[in-house]
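Task: encode each sequence below as structure tokens.

Item 1
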Amino acid sequence: MKLARITLIAVSLLAATAANADDTRCKRVRADLVEISSTTGCKPGHSSCFLGEIDGNNGLNGTTYFRGDSSGTPPSGSPNSFPYSGPFEYYTNKGNLFMRETGITVPGAVTAHQAIVEGTGDYAGATGYFFVSGLRASGVITTEVTGEICYPRGH
């Protein structure tokens, strides 16, 4: 009887674990992103922005839009660095992703973390994050995007 109870508890725990693992489906993301600094084509009220094109897996193909809304003070040991944050938007034919980007630029390079805030279409209810890292030269930013998108159960 004791063995049957232990077996029943173990089976229940395995079923609960499987159900929890099934609550989301996470997909790895890998993409190339090229952005340009622009003063035209920006949203109303934005005097400058970054417009981009993304080419990646899991439907992450389309255009992007970024405009920083806050910046910080460079660390004393790295006076040429520039910390920043702002909303980053991905527009694809599968839906749109609205992220919060926080990063730092140094002469010739940029690195950032993006967290999914909201999604539409196939990205509705998605959670996840991206890491963006690459080079910046003459107003053009060429980066690699990696991370994961987790979709809600039933997606």
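Item 2
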Amino acid sequence: MRGHCLCGKCSFEVDTPVLSCVSCHCESCRRQCAAPMTTYFGIRDGNWRWTGEAPKLFASSPGVERSFCPHCGTPMSFRSQAMSDVMHLYVSVLENPEELQPTLHVAYEEKLPWVQLNDGLPSCFGPDYTKVQPLPD
């Protein structure tokens, strides 16, 4: 799979399979992507590479780095120290984003109240999809 920013200067390739594909509702992701939620996929280091210019990094909170294209501003990724060997790239920057489909909503407790979801996907507290704790009914 391949992806790139709006201007095409920051680009990457990914070797499948990916580890996960989730939709995140946390405030940090919403603010970085200027969207009510965002969908990203996790890929282990060694299974992805920048093929164009590497994006700029921003330390958005303790232990979290986010990246963006320094030319057009497109959000590209985030990395958490909690999962330091995994890069999380945004599905929307893939050349063929339809190839991936989310399987979980994370940080659901931060979901904006006007977002209505009827996709049948499970939801969990917090952003760590490796430690799923389903929301109470």
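Check on item 2: The chain has a mean pLDDT of 92. The chain has one helix and ten strands.
End of task.
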